[in-house]
Amino acid sequence: MIHEPLVKLCGNRSANDVEKSASSHATHLGFIFVRKTKRYVRPERVGQWIRRTRPKQKLVGVFVDPTIEQLDEVLSFVSLDVIQLHGSETVSNILQIKEAFGLPVWKVVHHQDGAVHQMELFKGVTDGYVIDSKVEGTHGGTGVSFDWSTVEDYVKIANDQNVSCFIAGGINPGNVAQLLAHEPEGIDISSGIETNHQKDIYKIQAIMKEVDRHVTSFS
């Protein structure tokens, strides 16, 4: 019996986006709290959208090398379930954050030589991984995928550490079935569910339909 993959719909940046993403049976909604990025959202706005929509999904905040003060400010507006770190955070940074807020922390690891070693470094510290494409000059949200034949290796390491593992980068309705064939524990999608920089309900539904089909075909 195959487990239904976790699905994170990330980069929500309007009340409309949140409504569309929340209407799906995805497991997580993501928000980017990284200034000067195209999907940056102000925490007070996110707080308003969440109060209005009341999504059933877990809420994930995405940060790059945040200070405790920055995290504190966001959390004063949004009751996040998970803090996702997308920068060059160290083990001691993560331990500090966990101590300060008592929330699960996911670490983004870029697919490249040494990625597996990086996961070993965070063993027992991080509560989950997001494996993303390595694109110079960006932290993510590029719409570029990596070699998915390596997915099993990442999932195995995360399983050995007893933590979750999401695959990100370039996932869309046209290729998600290919990725699901490699049995990811979770998928993390942002640009692949957008049309003209807004979440597209039809693309979201198409992704979720492929996830359901994958699970059904193995049950």
Helix content: 25-40%
Broad structural category: alpha/beta
Mean pLDDT: 91
| Strand proportion | 15-25%
Model regions low in confidence, pLDDT < 50 over at least 5 residues: 137-141
Question: What composes the largest sheet?
Answer: 8 strands, parallel, barrel
What integer value in Å does the Rg equal? 16 Å
Number of helices: 8
CATH topology: TIM Barrel
Structure commentary:
By secondary structure, this protein is an alpha/beta fold. The protein has one domain (6-218): TIM Barrel. The chain is 37% helix and 20% strand. The protein has eight helices and ten strands. It has helices spanning 15-22, 43-53, 68-77, 91-101, 115-121, 151-160, 176-180, 201-218, and strands at residues 6-9, 28-32, 58-63, 82-85, 105-110, 128-132, 164-168, 186-189, 194-195, 198-199. The chain has an eight-stranded parallel β-barrel, surrounded by four helices. The chain has a two-stranded antiparallel ribbon with strand order 9-10. One of its GO terms (molecular function) is phosphoribosylanthranilate isomerase activity. InterPro entries: Aldolase_TIM, PRAI_dom, RibuloseP-bd_barrel, TrpF_fam. It catalyses: N-(5-phospho-beta-D-ribosyl)anthranilate = 1-(2-carboxyphenylamino)-1-deoxy-D-ribulose 5-phosphate.
Structural topology:
Layout: E1 6-9, H1 15-22, E2 28-32, H2 43-53, E3 58-63, H3 68-77, E4 82-85, H4 91-101, E5 105-110, H5 115-121, E6 128-132, H6 151-160, E7 164-168, H7 176-180, E8 186-189, E9 194-195, E10 198-199, H8 201-218
Parallel strand pairs: 1-2, 1-8, 2-3, 3-4, 4-5, 5-6, 6-7, 7-8
Antiparallel strand pairs: 9-10
Helix pairs in contact: 1-2, 2-3
Pfam family, one: PRAI
InterPro entries: Aldolase_TIM, PRAI_dom, RibuloseP-bd_barrel, TrpF_fam
Protein name: N-(5'-phosphoribosyl)anthranilate isomerase
